[in-house]
Amino acid sequence: MNANADNRTAEYFGLTVEVVCEMKHYTLIRFGDREFVVATSDLIFARQLSRAA
Q1: What is the pLDDT confidence band of residue 16, given thresholds at 50, 70 and 90?
Q2: Residue 38's CB: how many other CB atoms inside 10 A?
Q3: What is the rounded distance in angstroms from the CA atom of residue 24 to the CA atom of residue 22?
């Protein structure tokens, strides 16, 4: 995996997982050293808020 890539995370039933590839209905996630295909609707994406200066 590219070290400079933006690592996006989400919560999947209480577990923090890395989002590898997101599509409309399914998402490829990574937890530990394993990858899983899950329903996108089951994920809770963390919002990254930025403040204006």
Answers
A1: very high
A2: 17
A3: 7
Contact 43, 10 (CB under 8 A): yes
What pTM did the predictor assign?
A: 0.74
Put the strands of the sheet holding 26-31 in their side by side order.
34-39, 26-31, 15-22, 8-12, 43-45
Report the amino acid identity of residue 1.
M
Q: Under a CB-based contact definition with an 8 Å cutoff, are residues 12 and 41 in contact? A: no
Sequence-distant (6+) residues with CB within 8 A of 27 are: 10, 19, 20, 21, 37, 38, 39, 40, 43
Distances, alpha carbon 32 to alpha carbons 3, 15, 25, 29, in Å? 16, 11, 23, 10
